[in-house]
Design goal:
By secondary structure, this protein is mainly alpha-helical. It is about 50% helix and about 10% strand.
Length: about 100
Amino acid sequence: YKIQGGHDIAAGWVKDVRGNNSNTMIVPRLIFEQWNLQHLTQVTSSPAELLHMVQVVVDFFKDEGFDGAVLEIWRQFGGREKSRLHQVIKAISEGLKEAGNLATT
C-alpha cells in the first residue's frame, strides 16, 4: 500500500498553525480514491493484509505528525459493502488510536 500526496504537505504551514495555538489539531483527509470492490475485498479477507494496510496509514500519519484522519472511503461504494467498510474504518481508527493519534472522523 502506498499513500500518495505527501509532497503536497506544507510543513511550514503546519508548523505555523501549531505555533499559533498548541491545541490545534492537524487532521487531513485520507481518500481511498482508486479503491474498488476488489481492493476492499482483498484487504478485508485477510487479517494480515488489513493489518499491513493499517500500519502503512499509521506510519505515514505518525511520520508527518498528524493528529488523526478524516477517512473518505464510504462514497465510493454507494452504501454497499457496509460490513467491509466498517471493518476498514474500525481498523484504521483503532490503529491511529493505539499510535496516539486520537482524532478520526
